[in-house]
Write a structure and sequence with these properties.
Shape: flat
Strand order of the largest sheet: 1-4
Number of strands: 4
Strand content: 5-15%
Order of helices and strands: HHEEEEH
Distance between the termini: 43 Å
């Protein structure tokens, strides 16, 4: 299973390198982000598209990691409660 997992990640890294090298010119174009609210308009400085792609990937990774860590904490609490209740249930038998 470890070899399959490693092979999968090597394949993903190779595909991402191919994507970046084939689309290098398109990813170098500057993008200006504009936020229009009813009373105010904000405009960013020009940012390269490849930088936005990496930033949004990292943002998604951080959000999913925090959610996963929260789920683990909740499950550990439930497990602790169940383990504490188990000896009490065995005593009643």
């Amino acid at each position: 299973m470890g070899m399959i997992k490693a092979g999968f990640w090597v394949l993903m890294v190779c595909c991402s390198f191919i994507f970046f090298f084939q689309n290098y010119n398109e990813l170098q174009h500057p993008v200006i982000i504009t936020l229009n609210v009813y009373f105010k308009t904000w405009t960013s400085t020009p940012i390269n598209l490849w930088l936005l792609l990496i930033l949004f990937f990292l943002l998604g990774f951080i959000v999913s990691s925090l959610y996963s860590a929260y789920e683990r904490i909740v499950l550990k609490r439930e497990l602790k409660v169940l383990r504490a209740a188990k000896p009490a249930a065995e005593e009643k038998k």
